[in-house]
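G., before I forget:
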Amino acid sequence: MGKLSNAIDERTDRIGERLKDKEIRIPINLTAGIVCFLFAVAVLLIMPQQVQVSEKDVVNGRAFPTLLMTVMILCSVLLVAKEVYKIIRKQPLEWKTIQILTEVKALVIFGILFFTYFLSKVTGLFLVGAIFCSLGFLVYFRCKKPVYYVITLILAVGIWAVFRFVLNVGF
Amino acid sequence: MMKYLVPAAGLLFTLQNILWINAGVFIGSIFAAIPGLSVILCVILFLPVTYSMPAIPGMMFLLGIYCAGGYGGSVSAILINTPGTPHAAATMLDGHPLSQKGRTKAALKIALYASAFGGVFSALMLLFLGPQVARVAAQLGTPEYFMVCVFGLTIIAGVSGKSIVRGLLSACLGLFIACIGSDPMTSYDRFTFGNSRLYLGMDLAVCLIGLFALVEVLAKAEKSRGALRLDTAKMEDDGKITKEEYKRMARPVFLSSLIGVLVGIIPGTGASEASWFSYSQAKNMSKNPEEFGHGSVEGIAAAESANNAVTGATLIPLLTLGIPGDGTVAIMLSALMINGLNPGLSLFTTDGDIMYAIMLGLILVNLFMLLQGKFLTSLFAKVVSIPQEILTPIIVIFCMAGAYSVNQNYFDVGVALVFAVLAWFLRKLDLPAVPILLGMVLGSMTETNFRRALLISNGSPTIFFSSVFCWIFVALIVFAVAMILRGKWKEREKAKQ
């Protein structure tokens, strides 16, 4: 068991070492502006299908979301225009560095979260998900201390029991 | 006021309330003491618990967490030179050096006493100022209320992100999320994509679990393995504070409490701003400014009294206008509203006994914080070093159980996960999350007042400039935006230099 865990650790270390220096740089204001602009336009486009209105209304249910999306578009245009101005004036843009290793680690954590949810939902037993979650994170953190496993599992069962029997949550 | 105080005291002094206050103070201190956990996270996790409780014990529990959070952050700041909460950063500057001089217990004691003083001072201010502000708020109509919402959102959008534009983008996103579900005026469904579960809208607690709690779990990916272990300072001194030290602390504690209250009343500003501002004021006014940064008792006292003095003050705009002073009290608004308590003058008249019980309770919260701090500080100190390996899965289980328990279905757990991913992407785009929270909280109020005002004026937007109060808020918005832009410009100039 110990050998297997060491082999897994070595393998993940090697992957980590390979990904350590890999990064993507994005012009942050430009990207944020474009993403928000596209989101606002998409909302305005789906609005007629998603928001029913009555012709009698002076101010209908589309008025407020339309106002919000207009403000969003204006703010996005402002962000993008500022960056375009910088490009024209040959001033440095604001860049954000996204580290691939961090994103891969975040994906692994999201995987643990998703399977915790998935197992609980499929089995109908929250406790199954809670146990998976405890073990998943201990393995993620490469915990080698058996006492931590025992404490975490006891706490996981304890939280489930409090919600189930004290707060009467039916899972 | 007096006619409400006696019945309020009767409502407040029950065993149930005392127990909930103590539970809140205990949990809040522990959460704030652990670096990486925050008061807002704690309030989010325990919000579903209060849904089945009456208003007073529910609010007492949440206020216990909120106030104790102000003190708890100082424990790790003093012991391990890492602030448990962002507003304890100023405390760290002198707290940890004093601890390194072998006076750990004394530093913790100063932080506790100053926190309790700031908290009680702030609660008294709430008690006396709250009803006066509510009287003014009663004169506001729908267009004025819309302007109040815009004012609150603009300030919060301005101060919580790198730029006011980014803050506004986040606020718009939050307001849009609040639009999902049934139309508040016609009950037609909006942006539900045919999913009947979305008809009642997004549950605030579920969304916040994703936005603020689960995203912190995803953020563990950004930390190196070495960051999981921290060395804790030893508590071997007798914790004695000399008479001369008490004398030196008196003035900064009082002035910082006053600063904390003034800063706390302004929506969007918070404990961090108050503690840094008070710390620098205390340094400027001190006879021993050279001690600051090397274990000054005045420095610890100023920072801690200021960050706790914010707690009662942030409730003033919340209870009177429905504008939360900061993100944490924004969540408390939903705990109030679920009990049918809507902010405004009616809260101080028709529900006066409940409101005064809550305000009196805030004083009690601070006194219990003092008691627990006095006897349980060594326990809080041990909690600081709980390993992340144990803490992380426990937070996740709490989050998922909390999300499930709101409506007892797994759909909400899925929604929380979606919001965690959304929050992760927003972080990557440098878009702040607090304006989203404020947008979600104020969404319904903003839209309802916007549409009602336009209905009254037959669709004419001039109604938003039709009264003196409207113009006052327009002036305040312009002034606030100008101040925020000036501040950001100064920051940029400093960075350039």
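Chain A touches chain B through 70 residues (CB under 8 Å). The longest strand of chain A covers residues 23-27.

More on Monday.
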